[in-house]
Every structure is written in C-alpha cells, then in structure tokens.
Specification:
Helix content is 51%, strand content 15%. It has helices at 3-22, 41-55, 76-82, 103-106, 114-123, 126-135, 175-181, 192-201, 212-218, 245-249, 253-287, 297-317, 319-350; strands at residues 26-32, 60-65, 87-91, 139-146, 153-155, 169-171, 186-188, 206-207, 226-229, 238-244, 291-294. The termini are far apart.
Amino acid sequence: MDRRHVLAGAAASAVLAAPALSQGLVRWRMATTWPKSLDTLYGSAEALCRRVTQLSEGKFTIQCFAGGEIAPALQSFDAVQTGSVECSHILASNFLGKDINLAFDGGLPFGLNMRQQAAWVHEGGGMALLRDLYRKYNCVNFLAGNVGVQMGGFFRREIRTVEDLSGLKMRIGGFGGRILAKFGAVPQVLPASDIYSALERGTIDATEWVGPYDDEKLGFHRIARYYYSPGWWEGSAAITAIVNTGAWDSLSEVNKALFETAANEQHTLMMAKYDARNPDALRRIVGAGTQLRIFPRPLMEAMYRASFETFEELAGQNADFKKLYDAWLPFLDNSNAWFRVAEYTLDSFRLTSRIPGR
C-alpha cells in the first residue's frame, strides 16, 4: 500500500473516531427570566443545572444564563420554542400574552396552593393537559419550583377600598393584572431588573414580585411605604422548566430521567428556601419602617367574585381554557374540602395561639 492510501485511511479513521469521542456527551444552555441577585429563583435554576451535571457524571451539562444574558428575560419562552436555546426556567404566568391558558401552569387567582398544585399536576391529570398545551409551542414542561403564596406587593399609598385601585399603575404579571384592570388599575409587565427604577421614577405606583426575601433584595421597601398581603392572584406561583421538543426527543432515556429528577428536587428545595428565609426578611423590612397591611376583606371579596366570573367568561370563549378549567375546578373544590378538615383546622388554631411560656 502506498503512502497516499495510508494517509487517506488514517484521515478516514480520524473522522469516524471524532463522533465516537463525543458520543453520549450533551451540552445545553438554559435561559432564565431572573437576575443573578435572586439566589432563590436564579439560584434554583443554577442548582438544577448543577444537579444534572452531577448525576450524569459530567456527560450531560447545562449552562445557566440570567435574564438578558442570552435572551431578553421576557423572550426566554420564545427562545426555547424556536430552538435558540434548549431550555428555560420561567414563571408561566409572565407569558399569558402568548396564551392565557398558561395560567393553569403558573397559578390562577384564589387557586391551588403549592401542595395542591403539585397534586393536580402529578396525580390529578394536570400534567397531561399541560403537556398538550406546551406541545403547541414546541416545548415540554416540568414542574421545577414554587414560591408559595406571594405578598400583595409594595404601594406608594394605602389601598382601603376597591375605588383606590382606579388609575393605579402596577407592575403585576399574570392573571392578576387582568382582574385588577376590571377595577380601573393599569397593569404593566416588567422584568425584575427594571422594576426598581420604574418605581423610583414614578412610572409605576405599585409592584408585586414574590415575597419578603426577594423583595428585600430588590429594594422596593426603600421607595414604597406600604407592603400588602396576600398575593391573591396566585394561590401559589409554580415555576416551570421548559425544554425544546426536539432537544428533549434527542436525549437518552437516562438523561431524560436525570433532568426530570433534578426538576422535581428543585420543586421541593425552592419552597424550603423561601419558607426558611421569608420570616427574617419580613422582620427586617418592617423594622426599616415599612408598614405592613392586609387587603381589606371587601376588596378581597370583590377580587374573588371577579376572578371566578372571568374564568367562566373565558371558558365560554376559549375551548382550551374550558377543557383545562373543567378539569381544574372540581379538583380545587375537592382538595379544598379535604384541606378544610385537616390543614386549615390545625393551622387556624396553632397560628393564632401563643406557644406556652413564650
């Protein structure tokens, strides 16, 4: 064999060997909607990515990016849909302009709490319905966190009656803005990085985000005096990891299991972090001079009625909403009946009782 054949054979072997060397290695990118300062939300996305790397022994890695680094925060869903990135970490309620039905994933006003949402998704048929919804956008969804019941947000002025909402410019994502607009409020959707400056300039009069730990980091209490509770617009705010369908289908069964395991783990750990850190953060915020307020009951009742009236209106106009609502509502009603018997009975007693000797 002459030298040319030897070289040609060596080159061919090198070409064939190259894919073999990288066989089984997966490299993904995750766009998020969060700033890096939020170690709860962005930190959870990072932890999910690290866990995948750890479980796969480095064979499946995901690089995590803050909002705006690889895609604008409020365009991260589109980036996954088009395949610009393989996955993203989002609150689906921020994307209701794309599809109102995403509210069933992020959370509906006066809806399921964190545990109830997980039960509906994993055991109550919710996941199959949500998978059908996300399939329309070339995505696969995974429950990857929850922030629990949110605070009602920071306001420059007190809210005593429903009439006080008229003309109020409020940064609020999701379904809550739609309900508030019925009472004359002007909802605005802003990424976390833009909220403080908008509040400082007076572009908005109020803002909600999550709860004391995150809100303190974002500094809203330095501008707005009144801090309201509860955030009725989401019984809990579920966080979702979405994956491009093509990217998902290309994974091995083992890597699919690794990703889903990491997402399920973060669902538990995110809530644990918020529950552990919110109490002290709330004390610091109030200690700094912020006035804690509870929304008046007549206002809450008005929001409650308006929310369920809106659900019924949408069910009559939108076949997909009706399909989801007809499955979600009986689950909510049935679950609430059980929670009233055990959870509410104990919580209402212990949370209003003083610990003996303290």
